[in-house]
What does this fold into?
Amino acid sequence: MRWVIGVLGVGLLGWGVVELVPVVFDSPLSLGGWLLGGPVLHDALLAPLVAVGGVVVSRVLPPRWRAPVGAGLVVSGVLVVLSIPYLWRTFSGPVTPGLHDRPYLAGLLIALAVVWTTVVITGLVRRENTPATP
It folds into this structure.
């Protein structure tokens, strides 16, 4: 079974190379920006921001709020990152009718409201996890 997965992986890798070669010759600068932009953005902005947020959450919030707020921050970050291509379409091609004519900002705000309402309810319902005194 392992060799079947390996063969499929090599085939998909080959297909990726076939699709990538025309892009390299058409616009190598754009391809370089696409391949390098994500890791640089992650290492320079996203990772330090998440680390500082984690330190702030662990130092400032009481113990019963740490897990819900941490989970809310993670889910909010994922929602925002997934919505960026739909909210910021500066360099995209023509819009496909019926596909991109939705209110994505309103959907993002509603999803974030649901997440943070859940965080608040969870934080209010949770009990302090303090060890019992003998």
